[in-house]
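Input chain follows. Return structure tokens only.
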Amino acid sequence: MPLDHKKLEVAELFKELLENQTKQSKLFGSSREFIKTKVCSYSQEFIERLKKYGKTELNEDLNITNWVEEYCLVIADLRLYQVSTTGNAQCGKTLFNTLLLVDFTTFSNLDTIWFYPTKTQLDSLVPNMFGRVSKHYLTNLEKQLNIENLKSTKGNNYNQRIRDASIYFRFASTSAKDNTEQKKGLTAVGGSAASISGNMLFIEERSQISPDSLSTLYRRLDAARFPNGLIREIGTPGGGLGIESNIDRADYHFYPHTICDSCNKEIALNPKGALFHKQPDGIHLKELLKRLPTEEDQIFTQQLNVIVHLSPLLRQSKQNLAVKLVDIGENGDNPRDFQQQVLGWKSENDQ
């Protein structure tokens, strides 16, 4: 190809890129505008976009039931500093937080971070969960808005880009154990977590991460542009030192309830928590969200910590789930695993 034709082709590509970036900026606005105008309305807008563009990692339609919508409202409320989600395995915790990661990064244009307990989990879940979910979501969004290339094609398992924002995927474990000769004299945070900062921090499988490591993960928010930064933790309960330890220091914790078709009484769906941890002045989750400040000078004055307990009974099934759970508990070999993974609660024999 002659040199002049090459120059012309490069110039055309550059022009197209600039036009696309300009279009994106007009559609989404700047990070500063997002922080100033979108904090109070973001969660509701997130729900609306989920219904339009969201898919599972298998490219199936999302099942936005009432409890899913309410759960997404609380994790996406940017006035809540920390939201922890605990519950049984395979109940959608990772999926909906991944959708939040993609949407928040896209519309805020702010850097975000997601921590896994180990490199093995990172190498598996980044391509298989984030990669697929973000591809389906952004493809649908681009088609609707008539734009291109929201997500860079040059990312890897550790660094991804959406618009001008970076998503850092890291793992919390290091090869050197604390309090050993190998670790002596070294910094408290491993190389995987060092030298990155973000505005929203996600911690996957919180119960598999050493409590000693958590403060170093939280430090990744010290330079956040979003006031105070935001923390979202998800995980199946452990034996007391995992995500369930957030219960004691949470300002509010919420459990799913339903209305009995026979007696019309409100019943708790959480196997244990709602029975033993009911707050005397308890309020419904949506009531709390309505009480949160909306005035610009008050929004970031409190750093609320909320924990949400999900339940295996929230699943939609043609089987009688309660009977099935009892059967698993009676016939299973590992009561500890049953309580943590199936019921989604701290195992009693670890207390």
